[in-house]
Amino acid sequence: MAAGNPSSFLMTRRRALALGAGAGFAAMSQRALAAVRVDITQGNVQPMPIALPNFVGGTQADGDVASAVTQIMTNNLRRSGLFAPIDPQAFIEKISNPDAVPRFPDWRAINAQALVTGRITRQGDGRLKAEFRLWDVFGGAQQAGQQYFTSPDNWRRIGHIMSDAIYERLTGEKGYFDTRIVFIDETGPKERRIKRLAIMDQDGAGVRYLTRGDELVLTPRFSPSTQEITYMSYGQGDPRVLLLNIETGQREVVGNFPGMTFAPRFSPDGQRVIMSLQQGSNANLFVMDLRSKATTRLTQTPAIDTAPSYSPDGARICFESDRGGTQQIYVMGATGGTAQRISFGDGRYSTPVWSPRGDFIAFTKQGGGNFGIGIIKPDGQGERLLTSGYHNEGPTFAPNGRVIMFFRDLGNGPSLFTVDITGRNEQKTPTPSLASDPAWSPLLS
Amino acid sequence: MMPMEKFIRAAGLAALLGASLALSACANKQNDAMASAGASTPGSQQDFVVNVGDRVFFESDSSELTPQSRATLDKQVQWLNQYAQYSFTIEGHADERGTREYNIALGARRGQTVREYLASRGIQSQRMRTISYGKERPVAVCNDISCWSQNRRAVTVLNASS
C-alpha cells in the first residue's frame, strides 16, 4: 500500500506567529482565550460574529489569491453554523498591514468578537506564503498566529487549513475543512443511470472523476491515509470490492472470493478491508488483511449481514443484520463472536457508521414510509433522529464527529447534505450533478 | 497530483471490461422492445420474453415466490428444457425503498430463490448464473407503488451468445 503523508508536500514549514510584545502579550492572550469561545456541544448555538477582511496581497500580483483564500475561509466558517461572518461593507478599519495591532474599537463598534487578518505572498522560490492572525476583539489581544508555505496549486488547501486552525482555536475542537469527500456522481435517466466515482473538497470545489461511468460503481470509502478508496464495482463476472490508489490510478480486486463482495470499509489502521460476501441467500461479513491477503470470516448466519463499520480503536464492529427478522444494528468484537443488538425503536435500522470520536453510531432509519438519519450511542442509548422524510440515506461523519453528510432524494435524484449531530444547521453540499454515497475523508494534514 | 497516464490506462481497461456489460444490457432492452412487437420465432429470445415471460415479481422486502411466479417459472423450465442450448443469467432486483447495501443482498436473495426453484425443476446449475443489481436498475421510474412493484423482480436473461 503506497502511503505517503499528504502534508509532507504541502507544508515545508509551519510556525507560530507572534507579535513583538513578548511575554506580557502572551499572558494577555491566555486570558482572552477564555473570553472568546464557541461552545459547540450545545444544540442551540448563537453563531459568533467574526470579521474576515480580505487578506493582503504581499505583492501586487497576490491580491486575487488573497481574496479567494479569504472567501474560502469565510464560506467554511459560515457553513459550520457556528460563526456569522460580518458583511465586509460594515468594516470601519481597512487592514493594510496584518502585522500591526488592529484598531479594536473599530471592530467592537460592529460587534465583531473575533477578527482574522492575514497576508498571502508569492516567495522568490515560487512557493506561496500564507499568514494569519486571529484577534480577540473585546479582549484586545492576538489569540493565534500561523504561517504556512506551500506550492501555489495548494492555495485552496491553505484556506481550509487556516479555517481549521481558527475553528480549533475558537471551539476547542479539531476542524474538518481540510478534507475531501468521495462520492458517486450520477447522470442520465433513472433507469439508465451512469455512476462515476468522484472526489472533491469538502466544500464541493475541485471535483475530479476517478472512473469513466462504464462500470456501475457504489459505496466508495476512504482509507485512513486518504490515498486509497475501496468501493464496489460491476465489471466482468461477479460484482466485487475494489481498491483504487488515487495517486497512481492503480486498481486491484480485494480478495479472491467465490461470489459477490460488497459494502467495503477500511479498518482504522488501514491494514484491513471488511465487507460482505454473498453466499446463496445469505450475506456474511469477512475481513481481508491487505498485506498477507488472508481472509477471515466474521459472521455465519442465515441472514443479510452487511454495512460493517469499525469503532475508531478498531476493537469493535457495528453492522446491520436482518437475523432477527428485520434490519437492525448490531455491535460485536472485531474478530467476530457474539453480536449485541443495539437498535430497538420502531422501524428498520441500516447503514450504521461509527463516529471517529467513538461516541455515536449514525444510521439510516426506515419507518412509516420515511427514511431518516439518526445517531445512537454504541450501547444503544440516546437514539436521536436528525432528519427525516423520503428519502435520506447513507450517513458519513466528518473527522471531528460533529457533522454528518448523507444523501437525500426527494424524487428528482439524490443530492448531498450535511447536518450537525445536534440536528441543526442542515446544508446542501454543491455537486456538479446528482450525487450519492458520500464518504468523508480524515483530515488531510 | 495524479499521474494521468497511469490513471487513463487503468480506466481504459475498465472501458473494455465495461463494454460487454453494456452489450448485454442492450440485448435486454431489445427484448423488451420486441416483446411489444409481438412477432417471434420459436426458440428465439423474443419467443422466451413474449410467450413465456422472462420475469417474476416479489412482495416488498420478500424473496418468496408467489403462485403466479411459480407458474411463470414452470413455463420457463419447459422452454429452457426444449431449448437446451441457452445458458442464462438470473438478475435479482429491488425497488428503491431500501438502503443500498441491503438491497444488493435482497436482489441476490431473489435471484437465488429463482435459481433454486429452476434447479429443483431439473435445470442444470451450470447453465445458470445469478447477479444482483439491488436498486440500481429500475425498469419503472415513478415514485409510487405501481412502479415499485414492477422493480421488485428477478429477470431470466438468456445469454445472447448461446
Provide tags for this entry:
heterodimer; A: 445 residues; mainly beta; Rossmann fold; Neuraminidase; 2 domains; seven-stranded mixed β-sheet; four-stranded antiparallel β-sheet; B: 162 residues; alpha+beta; 60s Ribosomal Protein L30, Chain: A; four-stranded mixed β-sheet; 53% helix; disordered N terminus
Major β-sheet of chain B, in short? 4 strands, mixed
Distance between the termini of chain A: 19 Å
Q: Any low-confidence stretches of chain A, pLDDT <50, length ≥5?
A: 1-13, 19-34
In the CATH classification, which architecture of the largest domain in chain A applies?
6 Propeller
Give the terminus-to-terminus CA distance of chain B: 46 Å
The total count of helices of chain A amounts to 5
Total beta-strand segments of chain B? 4
Low-confidence stretches of chain B: 1-37
- Compute the CA-based radius of gyration of chain B: 17 Å
CATH class of the largest domain in chain A: Mainly Beta
Kindly estimate the percentage of residues of chain A that lie in beta strands according to DSSP: 35-45%
Q: Please state the structural category of chain B.
A: alpha+beta
Number of separate domains of chain A? 2
State the order of secondary-structure elements of chain B, H for helix, E for strand.
HHEHEHEHE
What CATH calls the topology of chain B is: 60s Ribosomal Protein L30, Chain: A
Overall spatial form of chain A: globular
Annotation, overall tally of beta strands of chain A: 31
Helix content of chain A: 10-25%
CATH homologous superfamily placement of the largest domain in chain A: TolB, C-terminal domain
CATH fold description of the largest domain in chain A: Neuraminidase
